[in-house]
Design a protein that fits this description.
This protein is mainly α. The chain contains twelve helices and no strands.
């Protein structure tokens, strides 16, 4: 029988990438909490908004790279990491939005809608990304997958629309250095190109096919029937 340590080591070897995604996704939250606890930031509101926004778009882009990682390199371990990375993205989007509404507008939804949502284009696309990610997060369970059937996959393809809106939100928000949002935009465009049927078929044809090893069975010498002696 396997010991408890051997069982856990086997689990880690099998799910190491999923565990890495779970731990890595929590790092921005830990750093944010530590920074707020230390009180070393000059403008904690702006710092919190910036860090949660960057973490949200990073987790969203990473979740979108899981499927191409399997398609291009056959890295199947990346597929189970899509869900936790996507949920982390939604978590940081919620923190980003709550920080903006709560600390900038005192949780006044009317002031938020009148001043920000109706007058600032970066808030329009950003809030649109949130509205798309909300049903995706709610329907991320296996129960919802069974209820929606084929429509579940169609619904979750909207994550690319949320990604585009998130990149536009970031691009219109920054005023000086647009390097980071442009990088995210290029990566997202590349991921969208990889979803084109012709590109996916070409990649599938380029990937080396697994060679099936045939086991040769040993040939058994057939015994010739012994003829009975003729009776005279």
């Amino acid at each position: 029988m396997k010991t408890l340590l051997e069982t856990r080591l086997a689990y880690v070897r099998k799910h190491w990438f999923w565990l890495l995604a779970m731990i890595g996704g929590a790092i921005p939250l830990v750093l944010l909490t530590w920074g707020l606890w230390q009180g070393s930031w000059i403008d904690p509101i702006s710092e919190t908004t910036s860090r949660t926004g960057s973490a949200a778009i990073l987790m969203l882009i990473l979740s979108l790279t899981c499927t191409p990682a399997n398609t291009l390199f056959g890295f199947k371990q990346a597929l189970p990491a899509r869900k936790p990375l996507g949920l982390y993205a939604f978590l940081y989007v919620c923190l980003h939005l709550l920080n903006f509404i709560g600390l900038d507008y005192g949780f006044s939804l009317r002031a938020f809608f009148d001043d920000a949502l109706l007058q600032k284009r970066f808030m329009i696309v950003g809030f649109g990304a949130f509205l798309i990610l909300l049903p995706l997060a709610i329907t991320s369970t296996k129960g919802w997958m069974k209820r929606l059937g084929r429509n579940w996959k169609r619904l979750h393809q909207l994550v690319y629309v949320a990604g585009i809106l998130a990149v536009l939100h970031f691009l219109w928000l920054v005023k000086i250095d647009i390097t980071e949002p442009v990088i995210y935009g290029v990566i997202l465009a590349f991921l969208l190109v990889l979803r084109l049927p012709a590109i996916r078929q070409w990649i599938s044809n380029m990937r080396p096919k697994p060679v099936r090893q045939t086991v040769e069975r040993p040939q058994v010498a057939r015994k010739r029937p012994v003829k009975a002696p003729a009776v005279e």
